[in-house]
Amino acid sequence: MRIIVFGFRPRTKQRRAIYDALLKCTKPTILWDLYAFTSGPSRFKNTSPLVRLLDEYLRLIGKDTHHASMDMIESGSFTLSNDLWRISSVNSSYTMCQSYPFALVVPKTISDDEVLQACKFRARCRLPVISWCHPDTGAVLARSAQPLVGLMMNIRSITDEKLVAALCSNLDGSRRKLYIADARPRKNAIANGALGGGSESSSNYFQSEIVFFGIDNIHGMRESFVRLREYMDNHGRTSSDGMSSFLRHGGGSIWGGGNLSSMSASVTTLGDSGWLSHVQNVLAGGAWIASRVAMEKASVLVHCSDGWDRTSQLISLANLLLDPYYRTFRGFQALVEKDWLAFGHPFSDRVGTPSVSGSGNVSFELSRQSSTGIASPPMRQSSGTIPPQPSVSSQAHNSNNHSPIFLQWVDCVSQLLRMYPFAFEFSAAFLVDFLDCMFSSRFGNFFFNSEKERLQCSVFETCGCLWAYLADMRASEGGSHAHCNPFYDPLKYSSPLLPPAAALAPTLWPQFHLRWACPEEAQSGEVEAQCRKIILKNFEIQKAKEVAERKAQETTSAMELLNAELRREKVLNISATNKAKRITKENTDIKRAIQSIGCKIHFSSSGDCIVDIENNPADAVPNLRCSSRQGSSTAVINDKTDLSVSVTEDDDDDGNNVIGRICETLCPFRTGDGGCRWPNGGCAQLGSQFVGFKANFDAFDRLSIDDSYFKP
């Protein structure tokens, strides 16, 4: 939709040189002049799309616990299955169908030999295969090319009928209804019968119903897009001639200065382009297919002429409506790689880039051409052999095959995004950047016409990856990036989207169609931008709140630790106080007990205690000095006036033994042989408990004292 005009001064000679340079850069004649090849290695590496396709197949048949790898593909061990469907490797070398992927999902009851036989009944050997299967009901979406029934529509294939019937299988053995959706107008299908093609007969396919959608072919879509671009250029804010549309037509406004007929003429011009009608037809077809699968639990087989243009549009749109996974970033990538790239949409022919032959396509000028409405003649295969198919690049020279088919499908996705703004993880800005990257030739994902051709030219190892580039853009800003839909609510739309017919009223996609002709009016994404700013600010506030709450929690935890420490210190203080009181009481009791037996005790600041024993008041009072130290225990008794006893605790003795020895040393009733002259004193029963910190002083006071104790 963008038209760039280069202006030159009169009588300059640079015009031809610049034109040739622009033509060489924008439309290279050989494959290797494409920017993705000439720009050198890219940091956006492309992992093998074969692995990603196989992962998607495993997800569809409920085997997503397995993970695909190149080793699995090279060894051929990817042929897994469930109760109804299986992954077949019959096309692993692309000998059956050059435009189909290496792996196909087919009914489990159909063998590979039957698959090879059935493919001969379909144009370009594109036999019916499964694109999507319902995880609960078992209903499937299948795709193929037109059957080769001939002009009289009387040619049949029993194997093809068996394969199509197997698409309606149930686990209990019953059969579900089958719809065969032909994307073409009925008259086009009949006209293709004269060239060997045609459409199915419901009498040959059990419990089937044939529906024609009436969607125009690639030539009609191309002409419609040309008219749309001319309308935007003529009636936009600025045009390719540099003149504002309000000053065109004799200096008057396009609305004719109040002339309503001029207004009606411009609106009619938009309607005459037919673009919105085509978009509506594709939307209606996709919604109809999705409703049959979701509401009736029926299986649907979709095809057009070759099965790679209108079929890809309808089948991928129905996938998008049925499966919420395809409305995410990862799912959208899987959908495009499966139903567009793997199943052979001819991107080189439709976009106008060179193909495998290297001779290049015709110049990609969107000129007006008549629409024949009849597809190219399908190829009829003889039994037992599959003839080589003509190169699509050679077909490009015979007819103008470029057409905005994929762009039209993305336009349909944008219409659904407008109708269901909460159902998609990505935004309209993502779709715009996605299309720009696809057309830029900066990445190799959309080069060539089939998976086989991309493998032959080592596109995946040589060129950068569009998906990695877009993912890297989002990773820089996370959920606040412009590609992320700020209104996305996966829980609200976790079921199929089934828009009614009244809602399928498309409008011009402003972010794409109006961005060059009407840049101010194309800012419908500003609402998303403002919402994204609010969400970002709320995210920052929430983050600051979490940081503050975390700090408050840390402070609370620290206070609790301090309080616990204080409580512990308080308990220790109380315990020490009680212990000190107990020791003081015990010291008092010891002193009183020792004084009761005629002794005096004095405590010094060094920890020594002086005990004076008064055996005879008339005699000199002997002194006993007790010193407690760590080490061995010794006692020295002098016959002089001072009796000095040094007592230290031995490491091997407990406190009771030491106190017992002191008691024995002090006791005046000990005999020389160790006996006791005061047997009723109770010492034998109490041991040495009446001396020391744990003395039972009350029991000591209750002892009966022998009178002989007080005699000389």
TrEMBL record:
Gene Ontology biological-process entries: phosphatidylinositol dephosphorylation
Pfam families per record: Myotub-related (PF06602)
Record: active site: 304
PROSITE patterns xrefs: PPASE_MYOTUBULARIN, TYR_PHOSPHATASE_1
Entry's Gene Ontology molecular function annotations: phosphatidylinositol-3,5-bisphosphate phosphatase activity; phosphatidylinositol-3-phosphate phosphatase activity
Region named Disordered: 371-398
Protein name (Swiss-Prot/TrEMBL): Phosphatidylinositol-3-phosphatase myotubularin-1 isoform X2
An annotated GO cellular component: cytoplasm
Residue positions binding substrate: 217-218, 304-310
Record InterPro entries: Myotubularin, Myotubularin-like_Pase_dom, Prot-tyrosine_phosphatase-like, Tyr_Pase_AS
Gene it is expressed from: LOC101510463
Species per Swiss-Prot/TrEMBL record: Cicer arietinum (Chickpea)
SUPFAM superfamilies linked to this entry: (Phosphotyrosine protein) phosphatases II (SSF52799)
Domain Myotubularin phosphatase: 62-513
PANTHER family: MYOTUBULARIN-RELATED, PHOSPHATIDYLINOSITOL-3-PHOSPHATE PHOSPHATASE
